[in-house]
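Last lecture ended with a question: if I hand you only a sequence, what can you say about the shape of the protein? Today we answer it with a concrete record. The protein is DNA-binding transcriptional regulator YafY. Below, first the input exactly as provided, then the predicted structure, then a couple of comments.
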Amino acid sequence: MGRLGSMLKLWMILKNHSEQNPIGVEALSKHLELKPRIIREYIRILQDEGWEIGTKRGRYGGYFLTRQSQYHRLMPLIGLTREEQLALYLARNELAANKADYLEEIDQSFAKIFQTASLMNTLGYNGDDRHVMFRMGPMEKLSDTDKNHYWQIYQAVLARHKLKVYYHPVSRKPSWRLIQPYAIWKHQHVTYVRAFCENSNRLLTFKLNRIGQLENLPESFERLHSYDPLADISGRIGVSDDEVIDLKLRLIGWEARAIFEQTWGGEYGIEPCPSGEGVIFTARLKGKEDVKRWILGMGREVQVVEPLSLREELREELEEMRKNFSI
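The predicted structure:
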């Protein structure tokens, strides 16, 4: 563990100890796997920076953090490099550009970090972010109710407590669902809840802003033993839960080059096309409807080789689209 990790862990340990319950240097040494001499040096540095670290002498003595200590004093000790500070700065601007949830609270947090680390002066920041990051495309709009639901769901995921939600699907009437929340997903700037629905007896994905009402239930749950979160998101290009497709595409032109610039989870392969033009992309992907929309977005630079049933479905879709554009 480096100095940063050791400092953070030391702070986390000290803040749980008071004058009535101090922790000795030997115990700290065991927790941090550092020599007592190093522990004392770190404590001296913290004290020099203004931390109110108390010392209690005697057989049951040790160190403790007083209530007067200010947490923001930790930041200068972290020793962020200029590159690390710049990374934080750009992350803040990307979140702002994408209209992230809780942006006001995020801005306040970043402002404290920047102020304490003297980041603005270091970078020559003049308050103009327009040259750094731009927002493109439609963004999710979350109401105060949605944000409140987000936190309740987040807490339920961690505590493994069931929720009762009144959900508004697109094509069916709204209804109450009893769910076991497993995870919160973000896809194309939209928030979803991955949960086991007891009404349907299967894993489903719920869009956050379609949850009209939410009730916290005291009943806890155990996740499915077969559930693997990494496997669940692997091979997805969207959030739909319909069939898995063994896909084979021929890509030409710009799409043949762009496919190498994308990260794919799960099983996939990219090989030169036998005809000499373009590449052959193969993958096992989840979500047929998402796959169809993705393929249609590539226009004339894609050809579906397999499965033939998907090619036929897309042909029919294109025929219907052609009717919409006929004069």
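Comments.
1. The chain has four domains: 3-78, 82-123, 144-232, 237-325.
2. The radius of gyration is 27 Å.
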